[in-house]
Amino acid sequence: MKILSPAKINLFLQITGKRPDAYHDLFSLMCCIGLYDTVSLDVGVEETAVSCDHPHVPEDETNLAFAAADLFYKKLKKNDGVKIAIQKQIPVAAGLGGGSSNAAAVFLGLNRYYGDPFSMDELMSMGLLIGADVPFFIFGKPATASGIGEKLKVYPGLKKLKILLVFPGFSVSTAAVYKNLNLRLTKCKKKLKDSLLDKGSFDPRCHLCNDLEAVVASKYPVINTVKTALLDHGALGALMSGSGPTVFGLFSDSDKASKAKHALVRSDDTWHLYLADMITQDDGYSISDT
Ligand code: ATP
Q1: What is the rounded CA–CA span in Å between residue 275 and residue 249?
Q2: How far is the CA of 39 from the centre of ligand 1 (A)?
Q3: Does residue 8 sit in the same domain as residue 124?
Q4: Of the candidates 154, 184, 209, which is a domain's last residue?
Q5: Does residue 284 line the site of ligand 1, with CB under 6 A?
Q6: Nearest residue (CA) to ligand 1, atom 2
Q7: Per-block average pLDDT, block size 10, for the chain (290 residues)?
Q8: Looking at the structure, do residues 10 and 139 belong to the same domain, yes or no?
Q9: Three-state secondary structure along 138-149?
């Protein structure tokens, strides 16, 4: 079984508070995009194992896809295993949720294979034990997320725009970003108040906001360089996704996005550029067999 495992972007990410555990409370608008890893499952082997073609992704039980399979079999009370092979397209530790998406793909794939023993809600609860973004990837539709990311509400108001992603070629540790966050200096609260986000009319020209962006940009000024380059080349808006460092630009049509890609390729050859579509509600679930 081969499963497409998409990346996500955060169009809005407000950190609302710190919790006693390692997590923060947040409010986010998230959308899957058409940049995919491929997760292959070979079910019915004795022991679960994982392999990945990317050198920075672990091939042991710390791989989120492995952890998902392990938990699935424990809950199913079955002594089976699955051989998982991951082909990476999504940049790693880049704010695009690749590992969480791979975990969601394993949950959905195994659930299908065993005849849907678990409901979507049950799968999302299991997903939350693996990582805060996993329930969103199981949910699969554009959504607002609150709590630590597990309280999901479909967001129907997203216009399907073209995306140009710029991964500046280095990874960022999510834990380190949250450690350096000063909640008093965050700014998305005001935007949220001013925006029509809750009424389903997100506008990329004025509502994009990420409380983690300033933390990462203060250490890596290239974040601002990329944003300016995207806006100079016709993006309606540009923002760092999640804990970065990937920055995305939103474009009204694919022609404009392609032209920007060509222009940016020439400006810095360490930047990795990807064109993608937003996966909106009309597309249904984003995780599907190839
Ligand atoms: P986060 O959820 O921490 O915000 P991210 O979207 O920025 O993550 P990921 O690509 O998910 O980044 O990788 C984060 C870390 O998780 C990597 O450094 C990697 O070592 C580890 N990891 C574990 N399993 C996977 C996986 N299947 N794919 C990618 N990374 C994984």
Answers
A1: 10
A2: 15
A3: yes
A4: 154
A5: no
A6: 97
A7: 96 88 88 96 94 96 98 95 97 96 97 96 96 95 91 88 95 86 77 64 87 92 96 97 96 96 82 94 56
A8: yes
A9: HHCCCEEEECCC
Q: Is 8 a catalytic residue?
A: yes
Q: Flag whether 290 is in a domain.
A: no
Helical (H) or strand (E) element with 9: strand 2-18
The whole-angstrom separation of Cα 101 and Cα 98 is 5
The pLDDT value recorded for residue 286 is: 47
Residue 69 CB–ligand 1 contact under 6 Å: no
Whether residues 172 and 216 fall in one domain: yes
Domain CATH code at residue 258: 3.30.70.890
Q: Is residue 288 part of a domain?
A: no
Residue 93, token pair as written in the block: 């530790």
For residue 82, list its beta bridge partners. 43
**Confidence (pLDDT) at 175:** 86
190 catalytic per annotation:
no
User: Do 239 and 106 share a domain, yes or no?
Assistant: no
In ligand 1, the atom with minimum distance to the C-alpha of 56 is 20
Give the number of domains in the chain: 2
